[in-house]
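Protocol step 6 of 9: fold each sequence in the batch and record its structure tokens directly after the sequence line. For illustration, a two-sequence batch is reproduced in full.

Sequence one:
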Amino acid sequence: MITVDFEKRGSLGLCDFLCESIRAQILSKKLRSGERLPSKRSLAEHLNISVVTVQNAYSRLISEGYISSVEKRGYFVSEPGSEIYRESPRVAQVWSMEEKEREREKYFADFTSNTACMERFPFTQWTKILRRILSSEKSRRIPRIDVHGAWELRCAIANYLAGFRNMDVSPDQIVIGSGSESMYSMIVQFLGTDGIYAVENPGYRTAAEIFSLCGAKCVPASIDAFGMRTDVLEKINARVIHVSPLHHFPTGTVMPYQRRKELLSWAGRKKDRIIIEDDYDSEFRFNGNPIPTLQSGDKNGRVIYINTFSKTLSPSLRISYMVLPKNLVRAFDRRMGFFSCPVSAFEQYALGEFISGGYFEKHIIRMKNFYRNLRNEFVRSLLDSRLSEISSIEESDSGLHFLLRVKSSCPRAELKRRLLMEGIKMQGLEEFYYTPAPHKKGEQVFVVNYSSLQKDRISGTVDALERVFFSKDISSHSM
């Protein structure tokens, strides 16, 4: 039987504390994979709390992937390889995310993490929706979901894209997947490995690794201040390109209209050319109107649009989607139609209702305000510190990262070692290049993902950065 000491819950509600306690026991292996959990009624009687409290806690843990429910058998700790796991493929990924979360706890501030703030996830509303779906008649007669995913979720996404991104999209064009990585793999299987796949240099290395792993020949294409260059694409004879035009990672560049027009023109000159548009954090543009997507300006049917809910909702909610050009839908169905959608049907229905009910839009507004305030406070603290004497910040009022340029001739490896000693983990811009990175003498450039920075650690983080960059042996190298 699960034992919970509610006297230690402090200001937490009973449901929140029960969730935390069960989650901690799962992570510490006190509750082992595959272990059957007490029924809602027996646990409620044992802990002297209401059945509703236990039900809400179990529903939340199901949505997070820690436990699973098997009809007429009960609740079980999620176990890779078991029947439970086969019903919810996301469980293995959730365990991986938890391992990463424990890894991040080693650091006072981890600026390599680009995950959403879990504390801001609307668990209460999500749990209500999931519980309603699990108890509905529909949950007992869910058919096989084809490769495109649940119709209800695709309709909700299509309506959302029309309102938020001004994209004219049919649900038939949308394909649901378990993370952007699965989308990349599926795209290569669909398009084939003939021809060159070009990726931005510097850029998001995971995409290139997956393209290569799937057998495609992947070539880095240099970018300039405006994004990927079409003359380079012609030179390397690229057939497929992967770009993040609305907020390039890691430089933060926003591709101007003229360059986007050039890319679309490049794609239209040959019938087999394809642009993969990764719109990974478009929701977090803090000033001005949303910038039009490449997809919305595509007249030749050459842009495959990709986005994910991992950054907007939760890193453990591994749901992404892509929008195919209308002229490629039939070909996709012929080639990929035998696949089933890898995402749990329950989660798809829950997310569809979450979006169509307006809860996702409200959550985005809250998260946008939260991240704007977090960014402003962090940037202001950096500018008000001694670091302003030797550093500058490059950002585009968009996305959850910026570049920090520091005047220092100290070897990069030594700087990173000192930062780690202070509990600060950061990556240098050069780590995102496939070729030797251009380097300005006397300067180091860091990529700062601030999405997981805790507000109460901003002051301590800035103090730690000052100690590193202004220590006697380091500052003697500074300009």
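Sequence two, same batch, same settings:
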Amino acid sequence: MSEQQLNDALVIAGKSYRSRLLVGTGKYKDLQETGEAIAASGAEIVTVAVRRTNIGQNPDEPNLLDVVSPDKYTILPNTAGCYTAQDAVRTCRLARELLDGHDLVKLEVLGDQKTLYPNIVETLAAAETLIKDGFKVMVYTNDDPIVAKQLEEMGCVAVMPLGSLIGSGLGILNPHNIRLIMEEAKVPIIVDAGVGTASDAAVAMEMGCAGVLMNTAIAAAQNPVLMASAMRKAIEAGREAFLAGRMPRKAYASASSPLDGTIS
């Protein structure tokens, strides 16, 4: 095997991870199911919506960190539910206080409640402020290669273009644009949003994406723990297929057993 295959780690902000699957914590029936699904996924990075999930800001309520321990996982606070740069920045600062100075965050600034499509103007403004404030920003964005490059050049540690709308399960609708983003990128490109099932995750990895972040695809499955296990395997298989290098596509048949040299 090549050196790349033997040491195939995802590196974000200088830290290495064996798993290329990043998972969320919303929409599960309870905290027990949340913990079981995350464990089955094999994920090492777990994203948490600070505005919707208790990670210590409400002492009298169940704390997610009791089942998703920061000692075991890299907690990735996110700004889900924020529609302005100001709200997103405030949310990240709150998370930093709650997590004892933790500076790795997932930035998302949404444009409207119907599509949850990113508001790029507000996203750029928030990213600039957060980076100046010492945060390491992983950023949710659209699949525009120009915007993706701007975010990277600003100093974002990972760029996370959507595969399709958040929670839609439609899969990767514009693979060409994501390939264009990857061609120019020097930071990890992680598909964020739209994955519906294991084959969607495998497609993203076969394209060469650094990883996939998902929540609804696991949490909304009939058996979330089993789906989490399936996603783990899909990510691993897709990555191995990318590293192996697929055969070229051909217009016509090519026999598995060549006729040259056969006995007539």
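Proceed to step 7 once all outputs are recorded. Observation for sequence two: The two ends are 39 Å apart (CA to CA).
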